[in-house]
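User: Here's a chain of 235 residues. Predict its fold as C-alpha cells.
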Amino acid sequence: MNEQAGQLAFPLSVSDKASFENYWLGRNTELVAAIEASVKVAEPKVVFYYGPSGAGKSHLLFAAMRLAKHESINTSYLSLTDAYVSPDMLAVVDVEHLVCVDDIEAWAGDVDKERALFTLFEQIKHANGQLIVSATQPPELSGFVIKDLVSRLSSGLIYPLHELDDEQRFDALKMRAKHRGLSISDDAVRYLQSRSPRDTGQLFGVLDLIDHASLVEQRRVTIPFLQNLLKREES
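Assistant: Prediction complete.
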C-alpha cells in the first residue's frame, strides 16, 4: 500500500546501476567533481558530504564505486544504518583503496562504534587510501562525542548536497528514463511529479514499477497509463 492515497512511494533500487552519467548535477557540480577526482587521481583523500534523506547521497557512493571498478580500484561499502554492520567488520575493510561509508551519523553517540570509526580513519590514512562519507549533517553537527573523530572527518573537503528543485527533478527524471530506454512524454513526467513524493530516491524508484508495467502491457507511458497504474496500486 502507499504511504499516502494518490501517491506512489517506492524505494530506490540499487539495481538501478547508479553512475555519474545518470546523476543530475543541479547545484552539486563541485561535489561530484571532488568525488570523481578522489577516485581517479587519489585526491582529495577525504570527501565528506551531507544532505537530507532522498537527496541522492547513496547514489553518489554507488557511482563512485562504479567509477572505481572501471579504474580497476578495489572498493568497500558500509551503510551504518544496516543492523548487520558491526565495529568488528571495520577491521577487515580494504583500507589501501576506496572506502565508502554511508549514513555515518547512525553510529554517533556510541563510543565503541565511534572508536572503531576513528581506527578505520587512521588505518585508511596510513595506508594512503581514500574515504568518501555521506551524512545528514556536517561532522560537527552529527552528534559524535569523540572530538578527534570529528577532527578527522573534518580534515578533508566538506560539501552540502543540494536537493533538486522541481524543474531539475523533471530533467533528472527524463534523463533517468532515457538511460533505461523508457519512452515517456513531458506531460506524463509532469503528471508523475504531481502524484509522487518529492523525495528524489522514491521518485526514481517509481520508474521500476513503470518500466516493468509498460513492458508487460506493451504500452507507451502516457497519462492514462499512469492513471490506471496508480489506481491499481491504490486498490
